[in-house]
Amino acid sequence: MLDTATKRRIDTARDILVGKVPDPKSQVEQITIALIYKFMDDMDAESEELGGKRKFFTGDYARYGWAKLMAPSLGGHEMLGLYGEGIAKMPENPGIPPLFRDIFKNAYLPYRDPETLKAFLKIIDEFSYDHSERLGDAFEYLLSVLGSQGDAGQFRTPRHIIDFMVEILAPRKDETILDPACGTAGFLISAYKHILRSNTDAKGNSTLTPDDKGRIAKNFKGYDISPDMVRLSLVNLYLHGFTDPHIVEYDSLTSEERWNEFADVILANPPFMSPKGGIKPHKRFSIQAKRSEVLFVDYMAEHLTPTGRAAIIVPEGIIFQSQTAYKDLRKMLVENALVAVVSLPAGCFNPYSGVKTSILILDKSLAKVADTIAFFKVANDGFGLGAQRRAIDKNDLPQVQAELAAYLQALRAKASTDTLAIATGLIVKKEKIAANGDYNLSGERYREGVASNHSFPLVFLGEESLFRVESGGTPKSDVEEYWGGGIPWATLVDLPATDFISEITATKRTISDKGLRESSAKMIPANSVVVSTRATIGRIAINRVPIATNQGFKNVVIEDAARAVPEFVALALTKLVPTMQAWATGGTFAEISKSKFCELQIPLPPLEVQKEIVAEIEGYQKVIDGARAVLDNYRPHIPIHPDWPIFELSE
Q1: Phi and psi angles of residue 628, each rounded to the nearest 5 degrees, phi first
Q2: Per-10-residue mean pLDDT for the chain, 651 residues long?
Q3: Which helix (H) or strand (E) holds 18?
Q4: Cα–Cα distance for residue pair 238/229, rounded to 1 Å
Q5: Before 525, cis peptide (omega within 30)?
Q6: Residues in Cβ contact with 415 at an 8 Å cutoff, skipping those fewer than 6 apart
Q7: What is the rounded CA–CA span in Å between residue 455 and residue 612?
Q8: Are the beta carbons of 378 and 397 closer than 8 angstroms?
């Protein structure tokens, strides 16, 4: 448990840096470098006290020692020069192990203010090195400020979700454990803590032998494409007792170097974002795909040992998507590895992302003998689903964990699952899931007596056979001949804030053909869906005439009118406004990029069902509009009797 004094120190260190280093990720890196620098000196001092020798700050590097750095006689500018030079030269220090060399690789001081550095190092000086749980928890608290990694499609996995997944898999001391997109190593540390808890006697003392501990240290592996994440995870593992953590800078999707390495347990929350044009993987994947989430799940399923198991957080596209790669992936999982699916609530990753996710539970040995798959739904995870994520009384995770454990135990015992009491989900035969060939992994689809609208597939706005997403543009304002032509040009004033879904039949401003040709503006055909995606995010309209728009909009052109109607697409997008706002990035004017906008998914029922839904909503809207008209025209009249006495307000 993080103690208040340590938390205060970390918060104070960040507060000192924020004026010079506003980026939270850079703040974490600066605190990380300073802590390790201080801890190396602490270890040298401890070695001397026990009769040994200093090994980090010796020889030419003795001048950089912490005590010399913090000497009262050292001036501010001298401290700045000495510390900056020390962290820059540390990777060349022959006395430090490769782990520390990796941590200091490319480290530098991003500001030149001696007063800021002096105040910052004074706070760092209050920390002292040890391998206690307290210090490891302190570093995890520091990492929690990182939040969303935005363009990489990464976001921090809540601790209670990580622990839930680890408890389900229950890793053992003799098993190899891998996270191929490890971030700051949260899954690996939770798995390590589980093994420590599982190997204690009645008095709480560890039963692990020195050989056990050595084997465990070698069995934990993590990969990440980001050198910054590798550095942070190395420190995180080191502070939790790993003297030689095995974290590698590695691209799991495009490099073949480690393809032949397998693991008994895989835990991961891989990145969901794919770059423009998709991933270009090597040729050894069994599923041909360009989407990162498809490739990551395929990678993990293929890199389990024959008795291996995995818990993987996935976006809902894996569950529903109708594209061939998604269906092929689900077919492979159902036939070879999948034993359960746990649906998480949509706000589970707030405030970093509002994306809806599920957890896939894989177990290769059980999947071979099971003819069923269990589906569980977590409606509440113990925290409110708003941006603040405050603790609440409702929590389905313990019950889901218990029921899932009972299901897995029944599979291991080769017992019937028909009599299991599953209150948070249901058990479905594999043959039923495979029946129509799409291998849909939504549990609600298979619940008897439930309307079929839960089973509509999700489609990306970037699905080219169905939609074309166009950005807007603005002709140069000082070129007169670009303006006042015959082409309607929409701006935010053409989408009233009060309307649910606006209809654009004319615009306040127009541009010329030349203005259209010589700018990034594009002609948008009638009956497209216009969405504001900059600053004021989430106003939605349907243009009933061809128009162009400024760059504050993303315009969804429907390419296949036999599959989607604009009114339904617009209605579906109104439900995604919170997600758009959560995904927006930027300073003064937050904006959702075109590539990110194309990641949005909407359900796509049959065309006739779309029209029925639109008609029903429009009927409700007419009632609402009528009620508004009554209110707008209601003018209360109070008759004033001439005999009533009149008083001044001052009385």
Answers
A1: -65, -40
A2: 75 91 86 88 83 87 91 92 93 85 86 93 84 60 59 62 96 96 90 94 90 91 87 82 87 89 95 70 82 90 96 88 88 96 84 78 95 93 79 92 94 88 90 90 74 63 88 92 93 81 92 93 94 89 94 93 91 87 75 87 87 77 63 70 85 80
A3: none
A4: 14
A5: no
A6: none
A7: 17
A8: yes
